[in-house]
């Protein structure tokens, strides 16, 4: 009987640690440009009813750039359309200044300095790294995307922010041995592909 009890205890603790991995307090997201070069990181950390994002990037054009969380955790170059539209679980309009917005994934513009560097501290209000409707790690995750232009905070569907130039996949850390789930086809639900 003893080995059986031991075995059960071990599988229970494995199960518990797996749950903890799926509910991270913080995550580091690697950011890549359209050539597949790593250009920085975003450190995401769980806050009360928000996720804080500490972003460091290099190699951008100086000036303002739009940044959003998009709905699928797939960054495939050269256009990153695999990340789908903005994360918008509540069906709102796009834009930080829109009266019926914003999307959960909307964020204020970031600014690259004369050397092309960005250091920004952002907050994604209402989002979570835990599981649930507003989770960034549900299903196949989400993606943090920087655009060539700036977000005007109002235009539908994506703030007229232009080409996607940098992308980072946001996933729960996987336990070793867990195989990747088959990703959904982003084209199925995307009638209007956002810029
Ligand atoms: Cu975007």
UniProtKB/TrEMBL annotation:
Q: Which SUPFAM superfamilies match?
A: Cu,Zn superoxide dismutase-like (SSF49329)
Q: Please name the InterPro entries in this protein's record.
A: SOD-like_Cu/Zn_dom_sf, SOD_Cu/Zn_/chaperone, SOD_Cu/Zn_BS, SOD_Cu_Zn_dom
**Cofactors named for this entry:** Cu cation; Zn(2+)
Q: Which reaction does it catalyse?
A: 2 superoxide + 2 H(+) = H2O2 + O2
Q: What is the free-text note on the cofactor?
A: Binds 1 copper ion per subunit. Binds 1 zinc ion per subunit.
Q: Record keywords: Zinc included? A: yes
Q: Where is the composition biased (Basic and acidic residues)?
A: 170-183
| Claim: Lyase is one of the keywords in the record | no
**Role:** Destroys radicals which are normally produced within the cells and which are toxic to biological systems. May play a role in favoring mycobacterial survival in phagocytes.
Q: Which family does it belong to?
A: Belongs to the Cu-Zn superoxide dismutase family.
Write the protein's name: Superoxide dismutase [Cu-Zn]
Q: Which gene encodes it?
A: sodC
């Amino acid at each position: 009987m003893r080995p059986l009890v031991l075995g059960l205890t071990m599988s229970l603790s494995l199960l518990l640690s797996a749950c903890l991995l799926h509910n991270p307090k913080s995550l580091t997201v690697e950011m890549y440009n359209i050539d597949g070069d790593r250009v920085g990181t975003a450190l995401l950390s769980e806050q009360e009813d928000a996720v804080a994002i500490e972003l460091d990037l290099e190699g951008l054009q100086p000036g303002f750039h739009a940044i959003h969380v998009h709905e699928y955790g797939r960054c495939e170059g050269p256009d990153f359309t695999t990340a789908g539209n903005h994360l918008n679980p509540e069906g709102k309009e796009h834009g930080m200044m829109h009266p019926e917005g914003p999307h959960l994934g909307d964020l204020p513009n970031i600014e690259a300095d004369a050397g092309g560097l960005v250091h920004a501290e952002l907050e994604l209000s209402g989002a979570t790294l835990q599981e649930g409707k507003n989770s960034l790690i549900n299903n196949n995750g989400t993606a943090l995307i920087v655009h060539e232009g700036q977000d005007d905070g109002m235009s539908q569907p994506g703030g007229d922010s232009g080409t996607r130039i940098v992308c980072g996949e946001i996933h729960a850390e996987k336990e070793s041995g867990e195989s990747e789930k088959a990703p959904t086809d982003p084209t199925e639900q995307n009638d209007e592909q956002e810029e």
